[in-house]
Structures are given as C-alpha cells and as structure tokens.
Amino acid sequence: MECTYMTQRGLRTILLMIFLAAFAHSAFASSSAAWQELYRKTGSACLQASGLQHAKLVGEPVTFAHAVLYRINGVWPQAHMKGQKAKLYCLHPYPDGVPEIVERR
C-alpha cells in the first residue's frame, strides 16, 4: 500500500514537471513579431543617433543578451568631410537603452 501511494505521487510529480516545463517554455519565448518590433525600434534609434546623411542599416542585426549590434553606412554631414562615406557600429542596449556609436575601420 505504501509503495502504490509513492508510485502515484511520483507519477503526479513527473506529470506536473512536464506540464510546467512545457508552459514555461511557451511563456518566456518571444514571437517573431516581437523581435521584429525590437529590431525596428533599436535600428531606428541607431540611425538617428548616427547623425549620418543617407544612413542605412547594413546586414542583419547581431543580438546579444541585453543589446543589439548594427552596422550603419552613410555620408558624413560635416562640410569639411566633403561627402565622404561613413561606416559605423551601433550598440543599442534594449529595451530602453541609449545607443552607442563607434566608427568602423
């Protein structure tokens, strides 16, 4: 009798753990629409922070645990740069961080 109770209890525990694992995975997963919205917002903020003329994102964003990295091409706006092309990196901490811009070499 003791053995049957422990077996039922163990079976219930295993089933509960499987259910919770399946639920937790779906609860914490982000949809592709949520990722696209994040990329839209952070990419737009990076383009604005770059200060370049004709700025555009190049390639795919690189996603880290708490930031997104973009490559940006454009034209330097300063007159003394005489329309030279610019290449920058932008690291944007998400969801509400401030973009950091550095020149690519």
Please describe the structure with a list of short key phrases separated by commas or semicolons.
4 strands; 44% helix; alpha+beta; four-stranded antiparallel beta sheet; 105 residues; rod-shaped; single chain
Write structural notes for this entry.
There is one protein chain. The protein has 105 residues and is of the alpha+beta class. It has helices at 2-28, 32-50, and strands at 53-63, 67-75, 85-93, 100-103. It has 2 domains: 1-30; 32-103. It is built from 2 helices and 4 strands; from the N terminus they run ααββββ. It has a 4-stranded antiparallel sheet, with helices on one face. Strand 3 (85-93) and strand 4 form a beta hairpin. The model has no long low-confidence stretch (mean pLDDT 85).
Short description:
The chain is of the alpha+beta class and 105 residues long. Helices cover 44% and strands 31% of the residues.
Number of helical regions: 2
Percentage of residues assigned to helices: 40-55%
What is the number of E strands?
4
Q: How many structural units, i.e. domains?
A: 2
Sheet with the most strands: spatial strand order: 1-2-3-4
Shape: rod-shaped
Helix and strand succession?
A: HHEEEE
Q: Which structural class do the helices and strands define?
A: alpha+beta
> What profile does the largest beta sheet have?
4 strands, antiparallel
Extract low-pLDDT stretches.
none
Q: Gyration radius, to the nearest Å?
A: 24 Å
